[in-house]
Fold:
Amino acid sequence: MIDLVKNLASVNRRTKASVIRELLKMTSRPGMISFAGGMPDPDCFPNAELAEIFSDILKHNSKSALQYGSTEGTAELKGEILKYLQREEGITAKPENILVTTASQQALDLVSKAFIDPADPVIVEVPSYLGALQVFASYGAKMYGIPCDDDGMRTDLLEKQLAHLKKEEEHYKFIYSVTDFQNPAGVTLSEERRRKFVSMAKKYKALIIEDLPYRQVRFEGKNAPTLYKLDSDGNVISLFTFSKTMVPGFRLGYILAHEDIIARLGILKQTTDLCTGAFQQLVAAEFMRRGMLNKHIAKVCKVYKSKRDVMLAALKKYMPEGVEWTSPQGGLFLWVRLPANMDADTMFPRALDNKVAYVIGSAFHHDGSGKNTMRLNFSYPTHEQIEEGIHRLADVIKKEMCAATRSCL
Amino acid sequence: MIDLVKNLASVNRRTKASVIRELLKMTSRPGMISFAGGMPDPDCFPNAELAEIFSDILKHNSKSALQYGSTEGTAELKGEILKYLQREEGITAKPENILVTTASQQALDLVSKAFIDPADPVIVEVPSYLGALQVFASYGAKMYGIPCDDDGMRTDLLEKQLAHLKKEEEHYKFIYSVTDFQNPAGVTLSEERRRKFVSMAKKYKALIIEDLPYRQVRFEGKNAPTLYKLDSDGNVISLFTFSKTMVPGFRLGYILAHEDIIARLGILKQTTDLCTGAFQQLVAAEFMRRGMLNKHIAKVCKVYKSKRDVMLAALKKYMPEGVEWTSPQGGLFLWVRLPANMDADTMFPRALDNKVAYVIGSAFHHDGSGKNTMRLNFSYPTHEQIEEGIHRLADVIKKEMCAATRSCL
Structure:
């Protein structure tokens, strides 16, 4: 074979295999309880509703559903999305503000392709969604991290960073934030900070990528307005997905943004996959039109809330002193912080030996820090698995603490 | 809003809107007969077979079908693909040689992302598939064109080009060819040239991208071996799609290549869309397992063959002297060559006025040449539309000839 490595493009050389992906392979061992994935609970999948819709589409609309569609998305789905945004988010938008995507990962790839040249500065949260860090890195972004606390990204530190970059005359491309029930930390940006964030974007002429995969999966409390809603300057690009509100198996999401941005992203999407499947778009449009989406979200929220509660109770029951965790009001994940001297990366093989898995927190840090943290998923495992898995994990952590302090030999 | 243009990445600035896409918008006027698209005949869609499969999947396999899948593709679909390749192409491959993609356009995007840095040389056919030219251009490729004749790419000219590039010490990345019933020209690479092509790739250490969207849609005669089959050196990357053999509405295809190449492409795919929808993969796997794919292909071939025959007869009946066209043994397109002094680009609005549409041939030329050519699609229109549309087109051409020569005033 030819010398492949010599042939690779620079974007390829920069793209690393996902740590999570490699870890997940190890978590499929028999008897393993895994908090490592980020998958919805398949027992919640709306099979009966989908069966009804599939049958109706094949009867009445197969010629459009099975054919090539337009790059921007089908009129039916866009129409339902616009109604949804108006009703649920108070956002008035036009079809030209929407680009249907092959789920949110494609949206992240398209905005990266659209805006990032090698060495371009991009601002991310610490910690941040691994899939976003990976794609930004693949396009050669120079990442600057802003720490999160329980109210999301620290906007005071963000302003300092923006002012500093401006002074350096660096032309940063965008700020990326998962604003609701963040992956991985489970925290939500407060309304006060949202307002500051949007006004800073305006002041410093920065684009904001607002990633909203979990926003609709809220168990309690009330959503703060989206950044898109608060912005009046066309600076916010919002990413939505049906992966958590319907099913992930169709790969379906959409981008909401200023029409000039959507037009550019649409041209890029055309070279990337021509269009997202018309079939799954018509399925989603019907799922919304028939009122099934909101009913399904209510069901999912009820199930995940009870799983979160089981996990919080188990953490309280089993974890030794010095271990802290977030209490998310929605989403799929919570975030565990071990004492600063501990290392969840090196502990990982011992957790696997004890048949429990998590994702190492350092994978969510653009600079590889956060070694004393881990992400736990509560949407996929059963109540019994959560109780037993947290018990196992606590045992591993306790042993690790003993070994570190030599206090319990 | 911020200054978007200042923000755009170079790949974005290089990506142009598709000519075809803009033209297609004009072809939806009432009464228009369009030979411009490239769509399968929706009357052939296998609705009954799909209804049966959808229902069975929701009953027995919904938890996998609706969940996230692996980046490389589901085991079920890969298994069926491997059996298919063995049976139909005499190719023995392993699961590690296959990457399931969101149809062939994503495959083209992934190989481009994997191998093309700005100014990298890439060799294409003249004419060549527009969607490939677009994506290569978006990554900044420097394209070299090799003319085609009735036996496909002129391998004698290819060798000269390869030798010349070698002398210049240019490091070309790959040679791109649609080997069977080429889009746009409808020609097929002869077996003799295939053998030369593969041995040249070895000699000059070049990768070959073999794009096979129409290979299975053969009306008569026998397929020559794939380049993948003829190569023993791991230099061929083959792109397959279900868009023409099942339906386009699922966006499903796959790449067959050396496992080291598949591993790199898989990592890139992960940042691009995580995975292709498991649902459509399981549908396709069942479609193959139940023997429906070959039956469906046979049906499609019968329908398209008769449409091609109607188009060939109409061309013969209506076209003035000096107009030439290809007679493809399969696929969806044929290629028309007007006398050298004519311009199908400038004629296009007059064709629209006469309610008939084609794609200008220059769109398929990397250097914008080929102004006297056009692509006609015969899979989508009905027999009656083909007959009437060719009649209309011939009238436009005749008028244009008169105007050019002033001989019939």
Chain B touches chain A through 82 residues (CB under 8 Å). Residues 4-45+295-404 of chain B form a domain with the Aspartate Aminotransferase, domain 1 fold (CATH 3.90.1150.10). The first strand of chain B starts at residue 33 and ends at 34.
